[in-house]
Write a structure and sequence with these properties.
CATH architecture of one domain: Sandwich
Largest sheet: 6 strands, antiparallel
Oligomer: single chain
Order of helices and strands: HHEEEEEEEEEEEEE
CATH class of one domain: Mainly Beta
Helix content: 10-25%
Number of helices: 2
Shape: rod-shaped
CATH topology of one domain: Immunoglobulin-like
Strand content: 25-35%
Number of strands: 13
Distance between the termini: 203 Å
Radius of gyration: 65 Å
Length: 235
């Protein structure tokens, strides 16, 4: 039986070691080609491109300030707003001169004598007259009484108010308040007294049994002194 002959060629003429070296060289060439191909297609780097640089982030333009948050200067305005008026200094206040102090206290005068109770204002209690008084109205009774007239003179240039005028009478050592009667010709002072004129009023008070003296108090115009006129009670 004849042996099969191995075809002769370059690979057959190489020894085992030479064949290993050729195979290693071929593998290195193939690897180098693969690496070169990846670099050409951009797959060789971790970011997907060899030698490609990461894009540099561009800085964003700074935001424009909000006009509503900007401090306002005095006199400045915002769109659509009226200018705010600057505070004005208050005008100096001039105090009026103090008025003359009104009269006060009590002015004593004899019955029948005029007494000045305020500048250009006088009050007079005319002579006392003993009468039989007639009581008119609820709670009033008839009886011995004293009647007198009160005069208020106004020498000023203006009308005076007598709305608050009050007349009282007190009797005896104990100063017993008298009871005023509405009858027997009594008539209170009017509400006003004209400039340069005189106002009169007539008053009637019951007499207590032991009335030896009669004291009359007259409150005339506001702020004036009180007239105090005392006389013996007529018999």
């Amino acid at each position: 039986m004849s042996e099969t002959s191995t075809p002769a060629g370059p690979w057959a003429r190489l020894g085992p070691r030479a064949r290993v070296a050729v195979l290693a060289l071929a593998a290195a060439v193939v690897l180098a080609l693969v690496v070169w191909g990846l670099a050409r297609t951009g797959g060789g780097g971790p970011d997907g491109a060899s030698g490609a640089t990461s894009p540099t982030p561009t800085s964003s333009p700074s935001a424009s300030p909000d006009p509503s948050q900007s401090p306002l200067v005095a006199g400045a305005t915002t769109d659509g707003a009226e200018p705010e008026a600057a505070p004005q200094e208050a005008a100096p206040v001039t105090a009026p001169p103090p008025a003359a102090a009104p009269a006060s206290g009590t002015v004593a005068a004899a019955v029948g004598a005029a007494a000045e109770v305020a500048p250009q204002v006088t009050v007079t209690v005319d002579a006392l007259e003993r009468i039989q008084g007639d009581g008119e109205g609820p709670g009033q009774v008839d009886g011995p009484a004293v009647r007198f007239t009160v005069r208020v003179g106004n020498a000023s240039a203006g009308e005076l108010s007598l709305v608050g005028a009050v007349v009282n009478a007190y009797f005896g050592a104990g100063q017993t308040p008298g009871v005023q009667l509405n009858g027997s010709g009594s008539a209170a002072l009017p509400s006003t007294v004209a400039a340069g004129a005189e106002a009169t009023g007539t008053y009637v008070f019951l007499l207590p049994a032991d009335a030896t003296t009669t004291r009359v108090e007259v409150y005339s115009v506001p702020g004036a002194a009180v007239l105090d006129a005392t006389a013996a009670t007529p018999s």
